[in-house]
Design goal:
By secondary structure, the chain is α/β, with parallel strands linked by helices. The protein is 38% helix and 16% strand. It folds into two domains: 305 residues, Rossmann fold (3-Layer(aba) Sandwich), CATH 3.40.50.720; 109 residues, Dihydrodipicolinate Reductase, domain 2 (2-Layer Sandwich). The strands form two sheets. Strands 3-2-1-4-5-6-11 form a seven-stranded parallel beta sheet, sandwiched between helices. The radius of gyration is 21 Å and the shape is globular. Nicotinamide-adenine-dinucleotide binds next to helix 1, strand 2, helix 12 and helix 15.
Length: 440
């Protein structure tokens, strides 16, 4: 793995975190950070704030080892199709209770979403009207660029990152429009229907050199045209889909089964979810995007092509059911049919009563802080070392995505060690990262 070229710029001044989509995840993040600044909450679940790593001199917290932006230096902004301020949106999302929100109410009320770049074709189940009008998609992208510039100037930020926390868009495949930057820009001018709103935000961010993370399974920045733009403007990107809930459990349990050479015959995963995300995913086209993301996980941990006698016949099924009474408290069930010595069958049942946004919020914080670090280190393009946080990690075409959470953590730690001039620890997972993150 190469050390990054050039010096690591310090985390001076304020970092603006821009969030397209200010719903459950985004508002839970903001409320948490504001409460942490007041000392009334702990950043549980955040690796940057609570995680440690071993170095030649000890076992420091990551935030004391790598020069990350302090929570006091963060500013929040974003866009939504509903005009509720962030406090109202948090109340609607129903993740945090009134008592928790009371202490940060004034600061949250002051954060109001900007008008969204939206197209109902991509998210049918939303009817918000707080949306931009435009002539061409080029004009729409320019409006988002103007928003970015205005936010940066008004809030006095020295740096920005953008993390897509908007709804999951419908499933679509890359086309000619997404193949090159020139074709994409032509598509913007001609209102190409296959340029989704999330791509407009990504394009605007990358044009401005703002690192972009895709927290949903949408195609978004996983197309050659936008990767070309990221390379042109030396900007880091990462995606897709925050790894929370059921998939988090899967990537914890599956590596253990694989480590013990236990076979898996079937893995049935079902969920009930009652928040707005669940409503959007109730539409089959939107669910398809999520399904593809969720299904990719097991194959890459078990490698059935290399272990056909253990995983060759594995049946994997994932379902999400919208059930309003569940609210944001997602409940998932996994039935895992495994087999052991001489093929004897066994079963594992997992019933995870999780709070989706409570698991997702610290991931947004960590991704934002690490993407800013990557930018200051002069890295650009896909940041595979952040796969730890993602359900469907984006990788360079020649690199197989890694889903095993333990290998992902080693890679993340080693990337930080190398950045700070330490030796990496030996781990089998390192082979895919011999060349290190792409330096600009
Ligand atoms: N909560 C989790 O654990 C989790 C895990 C993985 C991925 N995700 C993904 O993160 C995203 C956010 O999840 P959530 O629970 O906060 O959902 P949410 O429905 O509460 O919030 C999404 C918000 O995005 C807004 N939105 C939709 N399209 C937009 C656009 N074009 N521009 C601006 N705003 C737009 C919606 O109005 C909504 O307020 C979803 O795509 C979800 O699938 C969430």
């Amino acid at each position: 793995m190469n050390n990054p070229k050039g010096p690591l710029a310090p985390a001076e001044g304020k970092l603006g975190i821009l969030l397209p989509g200010m719903g459950a995840v985004a508002t839970t993040l903001i409320a948490g950070v504001l409460a942490m600044r007041k000392g009334t909450a702990q950043p549980i679940g955040s690796l940057t704030q609570m995680g440690k790593l071993s170095t030649s001199t000890g076992n420091p917290k990551i935030k004391d080892f790598a020069p990350l932006t302090a929570l006091d230096d963060l500013e929040f902004g974003g866009w939504d199709v509903y005009e509720d301020n962030v406090y109202e949106a948090a109340l609607n999302a129903g993740v945090l209770d009134y008592k928790t929100l009371k202490g940060v109410r004034a600061e949250m009320e002051a954060i109001k979403p900007m008008k969204a770049a939206f197209d109902r074709h991509y998210v049918k189940n939303l009817d918000g009207t707080h949306i931009k009008t435009y002539t061409t998609k080029e004009d729409l992208a320019q409006q988002v660029i103007d928003d970015i510039r205005n936010f940066k100037a008004e809030r006095g930020c020295s740096r920005l990152v953008m993390v897509w926390c908007g709804s999951t868009e419908i499933y679509h495949e890359p086309t000619e429009t997404h193949r090159t930057l020139a074709a994409f820009e032509e598509g913007l001018r001609n209102n190409a229907p296959n340029i989704a709103p999330s791509m407009i935000y990504a394009y605007a961010a990358l044009k401005e050199g703002v690192p972009f993370v895709n927290g949903a399974p949408n195609l978004t920045v996983d197309v050659p045209a936008l990767l070309e733009l990221a390379a042109t403007t030396s900007t880091p990107v990462a995606g897709k889909d925050f790894k929370t809930g059921q998939t988090l459990m899967k990537t914890i349990v599956a590596p253990g089964l694989s480590a013990r050479s236990l076979g898996v015959k079937g893995w049935f995963s079902t969920n009930i979810l009652g928040n707005r995300d669940g409503l959007v995913l109730d539409d089959p086209d939107n669910f398809r995007t999520k399904e593809v993301s969720k299904l990719s996980v097991l194959d890459s941990v078990f490698h059935p092509e290399e272990n056909p006698e253990l995983y060759g016949d594995m049946y994997h099924k994932v379902r999400i059911n919208y059930y309003p009474p569940a609210g944001d408290n997602k409940e998932s069930w996994d039935n895992i049919d495994i087999f052991g010595w001489m093929g004897y069958p066994m079963q594992i049942k997992i019933n995870f009563l999780c709070r989706d946004s409570i698991l997702a919020a610290p991931l947004v914080l960590d991704l934002a802080l690490f993407m800013d670090l990557a930018k200051r280190a002069g890295w650009s393009g896909i940041q595979e070392w952040l796969s730890f946080y993602l359900k469907s990690p984006q990788t360079e075409p020649n690199i197989r995505p890694e889903h095993d959470i333990f290998k992902q953590l080693v890679t993340l730690h080693n990337t930080l060690r190398l950045l700070m001039g330490e030796e990496p620890v030996a781990a089998a997972s390192e082979e895919a990262y011999q060349d290190g993150p792409q330096a600009s």
